[in-house]
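Q: Hi! Curious about what Putative Zn-dependent protease with MMP-like domain looks like structurally. Here's the sequence.
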Amino acid sequence: MTDWTATLAPSLDDFAALARAAFDALPSEFRAASGEVVIRIDDFAADDILAEFGLEDPFELTGLYQGVDLGSRDSLGPAAEPSRIFLYRRPILDEWCERGDVTLSDLIAHVLIHEIGHHFGLTDDDIDSIEDQD
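A: Let's find out. The predicted structure is below.
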């Protein structure tokens, strides 16, 4: 039996390392198409982000894509701000503990890939459809 008394929850840095490993494990074409997207790890989404989505419980949002998706960029217009993917540590940990059927690395990879899908211009319904095919 595992002795959990000395075990600490993964830190923001631990999450960043797991997200980097998940990104590095993606096919090279997928990584290249992702461009210079910035991946950031925070404990929770900011209050204004939660309000924007009509969420009162910060545990409801595990990840977020902010930026102009690749399909909507105008090559003749001003340069777009860097695209950012946020992974929210505490909600992901909460889901991981509640589910108990997935590794933390796999869950982080899942959320990361979902948000990269938004970077490519996919909607939640598009992503769900793709996931249902697996």
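A: A fun detail: The chain has one domain: 10-72+81-133.
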